[in-house]
Design brief:
single chain, mainly beta, 8% helix, binds calcium ion
Length: 260
């Protein structure tokens, strides 16, 4: 290849990258305060059925989280065994809501503190998932600030493996199961020496403040709570977050881009 042709190709490449950059300028990578890489995931548009089965997620990228790649909230203890607690998750949207799928590998299922149908459950005391949303993407230092200003744009949406739920750390307590707010489904599969817990969430734009639309970027993380001996949780493994209190500082969360 001649030098001139190589230069032209390089220019073309730079040009197309610049164009791509224009289209997604609002989601440019923004590192964490310590310079670490802030993950950014793209939620593609898909139709999902909330049934606790993840076959309808086929073709969507799942991200694996293990004790070695995730962040333990040091309010609880740590495990180094992926068979004790690990998971994979994915995100997508259908134009009206964000969908989140989580598939957890656990050694012992514990559901002694919650009941199916509860919408104000102590989810964090049992095997559960907690999804955290920063709908106005302001990366506020305290998601639960007393005046409720951050709850208006998201907060914490917890779903227990038995279908119990909690959204009391949002502006929409007891709204689980309502199509205008948020819904979910779970399924438990017992296997030899382990249990697979599957969760599907549907979180409408309403619970993010009502103004989020495809093309926007939101702040996002999730934590999986693991109870193996009854009572309070043993571990909380987050995708990202500043530990302890990964639920608190929205600046420790990842970005999710809602593809147009
Ligand atoms: Ca499904
Ligand atoms: Ca476990
Ligand atoms: Ca467990
Ligand atoms: Ca428990």
């Amino acid at each position: 290849m001649t030098t001139e042709r190589r230069d032209r190709l390089a220019l073309l490449l730079v040009g197309s990258l610049a164009l791509a950059g224009c289209r997604t300028a609002q989601v440019a990578d923004s590192p964490f305060p310590d310079g670490g890489h802030r993950p950014r995931w793209v939620a593609e548009r898909r139709a999902i059925t909330l049934d606790g089965r993840l076959d309808d997620w086929h073709g969507i990228a799942f991200h694996r989280v293990t004790p070695h790649t995730g962040v333990f909230d040091l309010e609880s203890s740590v495990t180094r065994d992926p068979a004790d607690l690990s998971y994979r998750f994915a995100v997508c949207h259908d134009g009206t809501a964000l969908y989140v799928a989580v598939e957890v590998t656990d050694d012992i299922l514990k559901l002694d503190d919650t009941k199916p149908g509860e919408t104000h459950a102590k989810a964090w005391w049992d095997d559960a998932v907690e999804v955290f949303l920063d709908g106005n993407h302001n990366r506020a230092p305290h998601a639960r600030v007393q005046d409720g200003s951050e709850y208006a744009f998201g907060g914490e949406f917890s779903l227990v493996a038995n279908g119990a739920a909690t959204s009391n750390c949002t502006a929409w307590p007891d709204s689980f199961g309502k199509p205008d707010f948020w819904q979910g489904a779970t399924r438990v599969e017992a296997q030899p020496k382990r249990v697979i817990l599957r969760y599907e969430y549907r979180l409408t734009w309403n619970v993010m403040g009502g103004k989020v639309r495809p093309g926007d970027t939101i702040g996002f993380t999730l934590g999986v709570q693991d109870d193996d001996d009854g009572g309070d949780r043993d571990h909380a493994l987050y995708v990202v977050g500043f530990t302890p209190h990964c639920w608190m500082d929205e600046n420790g969360w990842a970005d999710v881009y809602l593809a147009p």
